[in-house]
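Annotated sample (chain length 298).
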Amino acid sequence: MFDYKLLSALVTVVEQGGFERAAQVLGLSQSAVSQRIKLLEARVGQPVLLREVPPQATEIGRRLLNHVQQVRLLERDLQGQVPELDENRQPERLRIALNADSLSTWWGEAVAQFCADHQILLDHVVEDQAVGLKRMRAGDVAACVCAAERPLAGARSTFLGSMRYLALASPAFLARHFGDGVKADGLARAPAIVFGPDDYLQHRYLAALGIGEGFNFHLCPSSEGFVKLLLSDLGWGMVPELQVREELDSGRLVELQAGLRIDVPLYWHHWRNGGELLGQLTRHLARTAGKWLVPGPA
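Output written by the structure step:
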């Protein structure tokens, strides 16, 4: 059987970003919190924390965190069914993985009122939409938004809609590199901007034009910085239409080739035994995400 005092110490250290603040929240000495973590590690036979600043959970630590989160969600359901247990209910904390482009565009508007109504605090874990499911597989999060349709064993997936990406650049960049018009062979030589090693949107765009793997690019792991680099005439790149409507309307950014877009399907994944709260959030997202996302996959 789990000793939930030990698990609570682990959760609090991770959520508070350190042993000192965890001790204040738990009403214990810092030494007592450290002893609980050591005892938990002795019980499971391996480290549950990397002693960094802030402390990070190991793989087994993430699995324990996910277990505690699921237990909390089920306890919340029970509190709703037994009013006597519902005194002094604290906000529930959910760890959710999602891509940076969703976080910088539609996600906040979609969940803000729901979080206020249901007393939810969110821990956002940013991962590219192509690989976000690995966070659930590792037991790190209770749910994720990603491009994979097939759910993990013990989980469910719901199609939310597709995020539309446009290939954009500034007029000055186009004039410098494509004075005679945008041509496929020129795109391989003109520098692109890529979000990170898991971002293959630019590759897909070039492949649609018959261009192979090789092309020049800058790396920029920031959604906001990505757009700023485009506006600075540094390169061309694939950007969510949601993020740049003002820049498109003003002409500060323009499409490389009108009509050639990439729609990336987004799916909401969550654990089946995550309790009614996750079910309610799933139904809420299924109803509302269509306000921002296009209705079908690519």
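Annotation: The CA atoms of residues 2 and 133 lie 27 Å apart.
Annotation: The chain has two domains: 1-88, 91-298.
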